[in-house]
Design a protein that fits this description.
single chain, alpha/beta, 2 domains, 7-stranded parallel β-sheet, 6-stranded parallel β-sheet, elongated
């Protein structure tokens, strides 16, 4: 294949978009790698950083955000025939000097910048400064989005957002999920075995960071409606609020598993009667991980998760999380799902599928 460059926003030690970038790098091992700054150690090495990485703004996303569009437009001279950009903010603005200035640009879009285009889903877009900035940034962002020869969206949900905001068509390539890791039998330490054995035999599971927009209280409400205990796995600043909500709404029937290891989480996913996934997400990796463990999912009827969870076959779609009758019916529908059907569905989002589709995407649009 011809000479290429792959680009990402910033690189953290962990994250869904970082997992996608890692898979892209594996698909195109000879391509140069670029990001605003790298805080992931050697995980993505070798990777090049922009000028921001040599300033006090490195790692300070909010402070450096006004500088990002200009930084992306003034990248150094490079030689390349194509560039593939993994973008969830402004990385799709990227332009190199030299021969690469005329390289064909392709974009894998996790989402158009939420704080600009859908501030109701992103708290960063709600303050007066952000609202004023978005009025300037929207036309610029839409203009830059006309440059790619092709755009891939990570879900139909984001495909529609791209059409509404950037006014571009996009094809769909679902992000890679480490299905193989979940399918493997977990190897637990003695401590993790004890934590697992302390959990109820049957339970509704909520798993994510303990932050408000993940809506973990919906797992508590679902357990209450179905008369089942609840396990919340994860951690974060919202722990105290969740404990208070649990004590009020489902007293004595909510267990917390703080910061579980990957192995323990895999085991918990296997034990759960169903996973509750209530946030409005662009795609939603956690539901696919649950299905890989053979566990059905109650997914929000709005957002990318409805594209992986098949209502009545691998889980249930929920329209109103405040309606106890709907929640009871959704649990009944979900737990009737076959573990085999769940695992088979998860395979549609495996790393191997992503690798094949991202290679095909680049080949078709650069030949």
């Amino acid at each position: 294949m011809t000479n290429g460059i792959i680009v990402h926003e910033w690189l953290a030690r962990a994250g869904g978009s970082e997992n996608v970038f890692e898979a892209i790098a594996a698909a195109f091992p000879d391509a140069e790698r670029w990001c605003l700054w790298n805080e992931a150690g050697d995980r993505f090495a070798p990777v090049n950083e922009t000028l921001l990485a040599r300033t006090p703004f490195k790692g300070k996303k909010a402070l450096s955000l006004p500088l990002m569009p200009a930084i992306w437009r003034h990248l150094p001279a490079r030689s390349a025939d194509w560039m593939l950009v993994s973008s969830h903010l402004f990385a799709h603005h990227a332009r190199f000097a030299g021969e690469a200035r005329d390289a064909k640009k392709l974009v894998f879009a996790h989402t158009p910048a939420r704080y600009i285009w859908v501030p109701e889903l992103d708290g960063r877009g709600r303050n007066p400064f952000a609202r004023a900035a978005s009025a300037v940034l929207k036309p610029l962002d839409r203009k830059r989005a006309q440059e790619p020869v092709a755009i891939a969206a990570n879900s139909r949900f984001i495909q529609q957002r791209i059409a509404d905001t950037w006014e571009r068509d996009a094809e769909i390539i679902y992000p890679n999920v480490d299905v193989e890791r979940i399918l493997a039998e977990p190897s637990l330490t003695a401590e993790d075995e004890a934590r697992l054995e302390a959990l109820p035999e049957e339970f509704i599971l909520g798993f994510s960071r303990f932050v408000p927009y993940k809506r973990l209280e919906a797992a508590i409400d679902t357990g209450r409606a179905a008369g089942l205990p609840v396990v919340l796995a994860g951690g974060g600043e919202g722990e105290a609020a969740l404990r208070a909500y649990a004590a009020e709404r489902h007293p004595g029937r909510v267990s917390f598993v703080l910061n579980p290891s990957d192995e323990l989480l895999s085991a918990i996913l296997r034990r759960a009667s169903a996973l509750v996934f209530a946030p409005v997400e662009d795609f939603g990796i956690i539901p696919v991980e649950a299905m890989a463990a053979g566990t059905p999912v109650l997914a929000n009827a709005i957002g990318g998760a409805v594209e992986s969870v098949i209502d009545g076959k691998t889980g249930a779609h929920v329209h109103d999380w405040s309606d106890a009758t709907e929640l009871r019916a959704a649990v009944d529908r979900a737990i009737s799902a076959s573990p085999g059907a769940c695992r088979a569905r998860a395979q549609d989002f495996s790393s191997a599928v992503f690798d094949r589709k991202i290679r095909d995407f680049v080949a078709r649009h650069t030949s």
